[in-house]
Amino acid sequence: MTRSTAFPTLLAAAALALCGTACNTAPAPAESAPPPPDVGAITAAITDMEEVYAKAAANKDVETIMAYYAEDIVSYRTGKEALQGKAALRAEMAERMEQDSLNVVPVFKVQDIFVGLDHVTEIGSWTDSDAQGNVLDHGTYMAVFRKTANGWECIREMSVSAKAKEAAATAS
Fold first, then answer.
1. Is this prediction's pTM over 0.70?
2. Which of 22, 36, 62, 147 is deepest in the core (most CB within 10 A)?
3. Per-block average pLDDT, block size 10, for the chain (172 residues)?
4. Residue 72, C-beta contacts closer than 8 angstroms, at least 6 positions apart
């Protein structure tokens, strides 16, 4: 072997020695990606939750409503401090329902759903009417849900009334 061919030959032999049996094994199969979320089914589940919530609110059934929420819920509302935790929300909701002499009937309408792997963000509209169907207030809301073993639970919500904006526009 000449000097000019000795180095490439040694380099090839070293590469083969380093490779050993590892070069002969097939690559590990790629992990399959999880199936995409079923947006239609998730939207239906969230819509069902909103309908149960609305019926329970009309019946002043605080405990049924509380099933909607996670223990660590944070609820933001127009003109009020954020409520932190299910106990604080339960107390505020029970007091509000106790003071409700108009028998408010809420309606929630899911406008849009944004689906992640274990979270869903819902954007919707709401209308509160009295027992005769007269609209008392309306607005928009956003809710963030966390996936649990039993479905979805609301961990954050924000609700804004359109009434104040309409009153300001009328006053100008």
1. yes
2. 62
3. 52 52 60 86 96 97 98 92 97 95 95 95 97 94 96 96 71 64
4. 85, 86, 155
